[in-house]
Design a protein that fits this description.
The structure holds two protein chains of two kinds. Chain A is mainly β. Chain A is built from no helices and eleven strands. In chain A, 0% of the residues lie in helices and 54% in strands. The N and C termini of chain A lie far apart (36 Å). Classes of the chains: A mainly beta, B mainly beta. The interface between A and B is medium-sized, with 23 and 20 residues.
Amino acid sequence: DARVTQTPRHKVTEMGQEVTMRCQPILGHNTVFWYRQTMMQGLELLAYFRNRAPLDDSGMPKDRFSAEMPDATLATLKIQPSEPRDSAVYFCASGSRQGQYEQYFGPGTRLTVT
Amino acid sequence: AQSVTQLDSQVPVFEEAPVELRCNYSSSVSVYLFWYVQYPNQGLQLLLKYLSGSTLVKSINGFEAEFNKSQTSFHLRKPSVHISDTAEYFCAVVAPGGSYIPTFGRGTSLIVHP
C-alpha cells in the first residue's frame, strides 16, 4: 500500500528556531506539493515540484521558507527563523500525470511555534 | 485561472438522512473535478473524480457526484449518511494539460448527529 510519509508528525518549537519537515513521496510520482492548513486560511499551496524542479513557490514567504528536493525520494520544507504565525499543519502531497492529476496526501506535520 | 466555491462551510445532518454538499467552479477551460475527504487529524484523500464520460461518478462508500457543465457544478450527495462520514470535504479542479496545480475550495464540514 503506497503512501506519502511525513516526518515529524508533531513539532513544538520556540520562536526563532529552525524547523525542517520531510516528505517521502510515493515511488514513481513526479510531482510534489507542499500545503499549509489553518483554520483561518484553509488550505494554501506553498510550493510545487515536478521532476524535482521547483515550478511554483509563489505562495511561500521567501524570507523564511525554503523548499527543496535533494532526490526523488525526499522533499524538505524548512522555516528559518520560525514565528508563532507559522503554527499550522503542513501537508505534502504527490501525484503523477498517469494518475490523472489526483493527489495523494501525507498525514501532515502539526507545527506549533511558541 | 480557476476558482472553486463551496457554498456551505458547515452542514449538520442526522444519521441516515440524505445530504448534499455543493460545489461550483469557474474556469475558461475544461477541467477535471475532484472531491477529497479529510477525517480528523489526517491528510486529504480522494473520494471521487470526474475526468470525462458519464457525468455521474460514484465512490465505494456510497457517495456520488454529478458534473453539470451548464451550471458549472459538481455537487456531492449521499442518500443516507453514517456517523463515520463526519469529516471535512473539499472540492477541487485541475485544468488538464496545465501545471498540475489544483484549485481547492474552502471545504465543507459535514457533521453527522446520532
